[in-house]
Amino acid sequence: MLHGSALLTRDLDVCALLTPENVDKLRHVLREFHPIHRMTPQRLPFLGNPEPGVSLHNLYLQTDLGPLDILSSITGVGDYGRVLETSIEIDLFGERVRVISIDELLKSKEALGREKDRLAAKELRAIIQKGRP
Fold first, then answer.
1. Are 37 and 61 in contact (CB under 8 A)?
2. Domain that holds residue 67
């Protein structure tokens, strides 16, 4: 939506280095929002699972505020370093934040290839075409 898309996904995707230190920081920051692992049948609480120090590649959480996906890489784009390198900075709610560029988002949608991603890619191509001379 930040790039002008009308498609609403109702979740937040974040690309991050999921080091043990960063996972501890996430647990502290998300504590008040009662995060649970939404992709596990047991719906385990994130605050204690997995145990500290365990390596993670991706986190798919349900919080009081909605779904939150924390990914160490983005399909079609690359790992955190590549995503950061190609990201752009925008103002969001009075803060400067980095977000995936529209070109890299398009690459990701095309690489994922699901029906909903093909629709999103079509819209992103139209937004890019309209915005560029």
1. yes
2. 18-71
Residue 101 pLDDT: 94
The total number of structural domains in the chain stands at 2
Q: At what angle do helices 115-131 and 102-112 cross, to 10 degrees?
A: 150
Average pLDDT over residues 27-55: 90
Say if 2 falls within a structural domain. Answer: no
Distance CA 120, CA 43 (A): 29
Q: Domain check: are 60 and 97 in the same one?
A: no
Query: Tokens at residue 118, please?
Result: 């093909």
Predicted confidence at residue 60, as pLDDT, reads 96
Chain centroid offset of residue 78 CA: 13
| Whether residue 51 is found in the same domain as residue 91 | no
Co-location of 63 and 85 in the same domain: no
80, 72 in Cβ contact below 8 A? yes
The percent of residues above 90 in pLDDT, for the chain, comes to 78
Please tell me the distance from the alpha carbon of residue 110 to that of residue 116, in angstroms, as a whole number. 10
Q: What percentage of residues in the chain have a pLDDT greater than 70?
A: 98
